[in-house]
Amino acid sequence: MDRKIFPLVLLAFLPILAFCSKKIQLTAFEENGVYGYKDQDGKVQISPQYSLAYDFNENGVGFSFSKDGWVCIDPQNKVLLNAFTFDNGPDYFSEGLARFVEGSKFGFFDASCKKVISANYDFAFPITEGFSIVCNDCKSVSDGEHSTIEGGKYGLIDKTGKIIVQVEYDSLSEINPETKTLQGSKGGVKKEIRLP
Predict the structure, then answer these.
(1) Quick one: which of 8, 9, 101, 166 has the most CB atoms within 10 Å?
(2) Residue-range domain boundaries for the chain
(3) How far is 19 from 16, CA to CA, in rounded Å?
(4) pLDDT by residue (tens digit) across 87-111?
């Protein structure tokens, strides 16, 4: 192909490539008390079957409430993950990540519903200051309206899932953002832990 023509051919195909790579935006609609999704032309893409539904986000995924709780789905109605339920909805994003539950274990996912940190913990607190306090052998105890996490051993992971503080403490405090430290307690002995 002539080198002078190649840039023109490439320029002609760029709009087509941009259109094809655009994420599908679906909008939730309600019919007879259940929710489904329509495309931008009003054509039903996912038939009504959910108790609640949020519009798809700019990453091409949507959150819907099913018999399995809050799920993240793709435009083909494939369940990508089960989001942790918080405040009667899917978990909030904190520093770009939210929590999901898989086999009663917690992990973290991004805005595309891609699992970023595997579900390895019995509970994980939201990401704060780039870290999450996690625990194993802990339990959620309800007081009716709210729940607290009790028992087990606690540790700290970063936003990539790397263990920063081993899961061996009886308790961990919140991170002090000024000193980049937190307090740990193990066997009744308190210890200041400095973060990297």
Answers:
(1) 101
(2) 1-78, 83-196
(3) 5
(4) 999 999 999 999 999 999 999 999 9
